[in-house]
Structures are given as C-alpha cells and as structure tokens.
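Input (structure):
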C-alpha cells in the first residue's frame, strides 16, 4: 500500500433531485457545491441518478410482451433529461471541479451518444477537471426496462492523495465479486450512490466497510411524491407511492464498521466529516481480504475489466 495523506474532509450531499429536469438538477448540484465549499472539503459526494432523478415506482408502460405509447412518451422525456458524457453539463461540472480544486462524485442517467441506450452511471471528477465514469453492471429489478447493462467502465479507479477511490452503485454492493474487484485495486474510499432507505442496508454497509477495510460513503437521496412532474402519463403509479418515497439515510462508515456520521433521515442536508485515513492501513493488521487474510492458491477472481 502506497503512502497516503492522513486527512480527507468530505461533504456528503443528501438532497432531492429536480425530477425529469436536467438543467434544474444541474443548477442544484452547483448550488450545493458552492455551499459545501464554505467548509473546504476535499471530496463532495452526491446520490444515485441525481441528474435527472431516480423515477421510483414508475414502469414506463412496460409489461410482459406489451408497451404503451404513454409510457414511451415518459421514457423519451427522461431520455432527453439524461446526460451525454463529455456534453455541455460535463464541461460545466469539469470546470467546477477545477475551480474548487475538489473531487466530485455524482450519480446520473447517462445517454449513450451513439446507441441511445441509457445507463445508470456515476462519475468522479478530479481537481484537474478530468473524470472517470462507472456504469452500473446490472440494473436492479425493473431498472432493467430503463437502463442497459454496463458495456464498459466496469471498475474505474480514481487515484487520490488518500488512496484509490471508486464507486459501486446501489445493489452492485450485493455482488460479492464486484466488491472484491474493488478490494483488489486497493480501494480506501468506497462510494455508494444509492436509494436504499431500508434498515437492513445499514447492516450491509457496515459489513462492507469491515470486509474491505475502507471508508464506506453511503450517499442516499430524498424523494417526495409531490416532487414528480404533475403532467406525467404514469400518474397512477406515482400516486401509489408514500408521501416520502425515499427517506435518505446517508452516512459514513469507518474501516472498523463504526459510524463516523449517523444516518440522516427525511431531510436535505450536507453531512461533513474528517476521515482519518491512517485507519485504512492500520486496521489491516488483523484482516486484509486480498492480502494476508486470503488464499489465492485456493480462491481466484478473474476480472474482465475494460
């Protein structure tokens, strides 16, 4: 493990996206970045699909062997609100990273510039404005009618002064081999943009932090039923949702599985924390999942990364 800097200040944004609105969601991202800079963070993290929002409860007119034109219209609206990598919004965010000198992690709906397929993606911008995009390996449940399987950007690593940083999106963290793929790259800051506001998820993230001996950044969002556009075709599916569709629960876990910050529920806020990166090395004394606490002669993971 290379030498890493001891202190990393993080600003974890738990907020509500502006559903189906790319420009307004981007404006909200920029506003939160400016607000967070008052605390001089090194890293700013946003939730899953923050641009243009996670359409919880919708199915876009899909059923077995059937589609509807109304659903297709809602899908096209979401498609139009999705971002193309290296498009105008990316240039704005890249400039913001350079301006602030921070790392910025952001979940977004990615529109492929050639095929038109959508991907559930996360981008990490570096202080020099460069970036790496991770596409979700396997969309979960009905996400599969909206997003494709990743065809590239499987396990990109961002090298930082605090060690390798990477993301797995939401239920990707329930893919054991995907976790190990990050551990094999020495990840010290494991970012999880997600919409998991269920209590058992808290046990999952504590386990992963212990298993990987890394900081787990649990980046969840707030979604209210009233925030969906009123003129969607799929009104019935939206109306069946509770008033608070997603409650958040964002928090930070240290490499021992302890809360650095407790989960925050039902509110928009920025969670600040100073991470002691010495823990990422010192706690591997008794457990290193891809080092002395492994048996590569018995167990082997082969990753077809690209």
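Output (sequence):
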């Amino acid at each position: 493990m290379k030498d890493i800097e001891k202190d990393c200040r993080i600003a974890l944004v738990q907020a509500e996206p502006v559903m189906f609105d790319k420009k307004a969601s981007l404006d909200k991202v920029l506003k939160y970045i400016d607000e967070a800079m008052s605390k001089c963070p090194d890293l700013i993290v946003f939730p899953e699909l923050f641009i243009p929002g996670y359409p919880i409860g919708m199915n876009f007119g899909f059923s077995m062997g059937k589609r509807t034109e109304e659903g297709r219209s809602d899908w096209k609206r979401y498609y139009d609100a999705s971002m193309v990598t290296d498009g105008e919004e990316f240039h704005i965010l890249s400039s913001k990273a350079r301006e602030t000198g921070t790392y910025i992690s952001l979940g977004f709906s990615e529109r492929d510039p050639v095929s038109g397929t959508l991907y559930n993606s996360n981008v990490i911008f570096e202080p020099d404005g460069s970036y790496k995009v991770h596409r979700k390996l396997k969309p979960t449940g009905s996400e599969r009618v909206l997003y494709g399987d990743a065809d590239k950007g499987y396990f990109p690593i961002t090298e930082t002064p605090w060690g390798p940083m990477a993301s797995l999106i939401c239920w990707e963290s329930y893919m054991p081999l995907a976790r190990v793929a990050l551990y094999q790259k020495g990840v010290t800051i494991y970012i999880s943009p997600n919409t998991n506001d269920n209590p058992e998820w808290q046990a999952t993230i504590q386990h992963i932090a212990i298993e990987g001996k890394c900081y787990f950044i649990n980046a969840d969002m707030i979604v209210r039923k009233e925030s969906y556009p009123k003129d969607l075709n799929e009104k019935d599916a939206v109306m069946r949702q509770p008033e608070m569709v997603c409650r958040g629960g964002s928090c930070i876990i240290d490499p021992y599985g302890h809360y650095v910050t407790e989960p925050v529920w039902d509110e928009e806020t920025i969670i600040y924390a100073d991470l002691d990166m010495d823990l990422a090395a010192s706690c591997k004394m008794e457990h290193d999942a891809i080092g002395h606490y492994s048996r590569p002669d018995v167990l082997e993971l082969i990753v077809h990364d690209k």
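Notes: The two ends are 24 Å apart (CA to CA). Residues 22-36 form the longest helix (15 residues).
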